[in-house]
Structure formats: C-alpha cells, structure tokens
Amino acid sequence: MSLDGCGAPQQGVDLAVGPDEVVLTGRVSAGGQPVGGAFVRLLDAAGEFTAEVVSSPEGDFRFYAAPGTWTVRALHRSGNGQASVSADGPGVHPVEVAVA
What superkingdom does the record give (predicted)? Predict the structure, then answer.
C-alpha cells in the first residue's frame, strides 16, 4: 500500500524483513511527542541525498537501504533534526530523530 499515492511503503506497520534486506526505521519526535508530516531524508556516508519520505501521523518512517553508515535528517515546521545509523548488515536498524 502506498502513502498518499506517492509509491512509498505505508509507514507505521509491522514489518517482515527478508534475509538480505537492510531496513532503516524509526520515529520523528519533538519533546517526546511524535511528529507527523516531517520530510525525512536519507543521506549516504558522503552526505549525498539518497531518498525522502514523509513521516506518518505517528512520526514513523522507513527506508530500504544498502549496508553502510547513513544520516537521517527530518525537516518540519516545528524544527529540524538528524541522527546517524550504522547498518552493517541485513535486518532492521532503528533510528530516532528529534526535531527542535
């Protein structure tokens, strides 16, 4: 199922991960509260833009990526924030992004 018809996977649902898949998933929050509608960008180790999704109303987001070190940046009218995550192999790699 897509998010608003843009082709992005539905955010905030249980996730079955294949044996070779690398998934970066997390939540955008501000003051401990979820932030929906944030533009969440995935940047590679060189800081280059790779992908973007919009966080769900619960602040959830998800990217399918290659193994490596990634930066997740969230942009929202209430503030911006970023976090790094190392995905050194297949599986689900959680990352939380606080905006301020």
Answer: Bacteria
Tens digit of pLDDT for each residue in 14-70? Answer: 567 777 899 999 999 999 999 999 999 999 999 999 999 999 999 999 999 999 999
Which carries the bigger pLDDT value, residue 16 or residue 9?
A: 16
> Per-residue pLDDT averaged across 81-93, rounded?
96
In a domain, 91, yes or no: yes
Q: Which of 4, 22, 7, 16 is nearest to 63 (CA)?
A: 22
Within a domain: 16: no
Nearest to 60 by CA among 6, 24, 17: 24
- Give yes or no for a contact between 64 and 48, defined as CB atoms under 8 angstroms apart: no
Stated length of the chain:
100
Contacts of 64 (CB under 8 A, 6+ apart): 21, 22, 23, 24
Q: Which domain holds residue 75?
A: 22-98
What's the domain count of the chain?
A: 1
